[in-house]
């Protein structure tokens, strides 16, 4: 009996030791999912997409061209575009805020601005069929890079990534972007990660001299072994993607 008790005690000790080892290893495996490059700045960018009634598209753009100064008096506009491909009768614009409290203050001030309400909002809202917004941050390795040339077109590419955040897919995604950018196939303006809206979503805003130049550069990139390898690695974390070709409006700071 004594030998049996000793054997049972030893068996229990081994089981407990293995259980603790399993828990430690599980924690070590899970830890990288919640760690990694983190957003260090309060500055965020609000993406807004408006859908316009087809027969009101020209009128909406004209009104916005005339009255956008009433809006930019309150906060910074990064860019304003009409969607040429990837969505009909749409405009897309990006607004920069230093904090959520600043944005709340801006929205409160706009609600009390009679010129903004009477000259723009009351006329523009009946022209729209829907509005959508997302709050985004620049990913830690990106910054806003304005094109050196004026004119051109922009492409907004949106990637729906698998859950886990940049700590999981960030390195592979960064490699895919930089292998396109470094040889000059495209110029990245900014890489953004959603905070509000559809989660695990990343947007890359690219600049090209024109649609034909974009087509030529993409044709070259698809024949580059470095790009192919980087994209192949990145798509392991990808669930879906879509894009829009954007034409800057005359009043867009990015134009």
UniProtKB/TrEMBL annotation:
<dbReference type="GO" id="GO:0000423">
    <property type="term" value="P:mitophagy"/>
</dbReference>
<dbReference type="InterPro" id="IPR012577">
    <property type="entry name" value="NIPSNAP"/>
</dbReference>
<dbReference type="InterPro" id="IPR051557">
    <property type="entry name" value="NipSnap_domain"/>
</dbReference>
<protein>
    <recommendedName>
        <fullName>NIPSNAP domain-containing protein</fullName>
    </recommendedName>
</protein>
<feature type="domain" description="NIPSNAP">
    <location>
        <begin position="45"/>
        <end position="143"/>
    </location>
</feature>
<dbReference type="GO" id="GO:0005739">
    <property type="term" value="C:mitochondrion"/>
</dbReference>
<feature type="domain" description="NIPSNAP">
    <location>
        <begin position="154"/>
        <end position="253"/>
    </location>
</feature>
<dbReference type="InterPro" id="IPR011008">
    <property type="entry name" value="Dimeric_a/b-barrel"/>
</dbReference>
<dbReference type="Pfam" id="PF07978">
    <property type="entry name" value="NIPSNAP"/>
</dbReference>
<comment type="similarity">
    <text>Belongs to the NipSnap family.</text>
</comment>
């Amino acid at each position: 009996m004594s030998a049996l008790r000793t054997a049972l005690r030893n068996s229990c000790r081994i089981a407990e030791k293995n259980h603790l080892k399993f828990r430690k290893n599980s924690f070590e495996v899970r830890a990288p999912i919640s760690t990694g490059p983190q957003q260090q700045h309060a500055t965020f960018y609000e993406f807004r997409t408006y859908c316009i009634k087809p027969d009101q598209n020209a009128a909406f753009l004209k009104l916005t061209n005339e009255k956008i100064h009433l809006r930019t008096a309150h906060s910074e506009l990064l860019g304003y575009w009409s969607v040429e491909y990837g969505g009909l009768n749409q405009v897309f614009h990006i607004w920069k805020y230093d904090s959520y409290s600043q944005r709340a203050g801006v929205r409160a001030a706009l609600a009390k601005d009679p010129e903004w309400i009477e000259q723009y909002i009351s006329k523009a809202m009946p022209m729209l069929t829907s509005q959508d917004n997302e709050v985004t941050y620049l990913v830690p390795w990106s910054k806003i890079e304005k094109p050196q040339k004026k004119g051109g077109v922009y492409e907004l590419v949106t990637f729906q990534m698998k859950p886990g955040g940049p700590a999981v897919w960030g390195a592979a995604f960064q490699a895919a972007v930089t292998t396109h950018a470094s040889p000059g196939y495209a110029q990245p303006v900014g890489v953004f990660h959603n905070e509000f809206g559809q989660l695990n979503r990343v947007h890359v805003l690219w600049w090209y001299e024109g649609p034909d130049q974009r087509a030529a550069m993409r044709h070259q990139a698809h024949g580059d072994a470095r790009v192919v390898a980087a994209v192949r690695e990145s798509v392991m974390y990808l669930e879906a993607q879509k894009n829009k070709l954007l034409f800057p409006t005359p009043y867009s700071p990015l134009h």
